Known about the structure:
Layout: H1 4-30, E1 40-46, E2 52-58, E3 65-67, E4 73-76, E5 81-86, E6 89-93, E7 95-97, E8 99-100, E9 106-107, E10 115-116, E11 119-120, E12 128-130, E13 135-138, E14 141-145, E15 148-149, E16 199-201, E17 203-205, H2 211-249
Antiparallel strand pairs: 1-2, 3-17, 4-7, 4-16, 5-6, 5-15, 8-9, 10-11, 12-13, 13-14
Amino acid sequence: MSGGPEGLRAAGHALLYWQRRQEVNTHNLANAETAGFRARRVFAEVLEGGLPSVGTRTDQRVGELRQTGAPLDLALGGQGNFVVQTPNGEKLVRSGSFTLDPEGHIVDATGNPLLGTTGPLVVPPGPVEIDARGGVTVDGEQVGRLRIVGEPSSPSPVPGEEVLPGGRGSGEGDPARAPTRGEGPEDVPDELPDEVIMVRQGYLEESNVSALDSLIEMTTIQRSFEAVQTSVRALDSVMETVANRIGRVD
């Protein structure tokens, strides 16, 4: 690390980087048991002048599928996303514990309806069966089909951009995510062809966060942060010594 003000400036950016790594890692660890949660990863991009800009992107690796046996626990064994209708627009989810509301809509934990190919799914009373291609039947009669769409077509995230909104209603930890950065129906990903859809009824996708890896990461971050702090103190001491010597010469 270079000395003088430039060295302190670089150290300050390094401290911000490791602080952000810690925030994101803590957030990931807190959601290690959240169904369908996708971890965030921090990256640094060197900008003009040689200083890093810190941003985050989503880890798209699929979590393991856990069998629950509940007929409205749904996951995807391959590509794609389910679509739910929220007050703020359509959101994509990889997995969810859905229920039926009094009107027969299939809804998520906050009451947002799960969408079929023609709109919100409504099912009559009776045992619900969902096949691998998303067809929904009740007592042997098909009543709808799940809308399964691809991944958002957004470009790679820019520094500082949050790909996943995070939160169970607050922006932290919610596996649902907006289709793209834009707004409007033209931004919603296209429906996937039947041959690539694999709906798993009675399953939930686990978080793709490894609690053990996150704990190891926490130790690495702490040591790195402390190392930068030590460098800052050393640089500060050198600058103070130089300033005192210049003062004596004057």
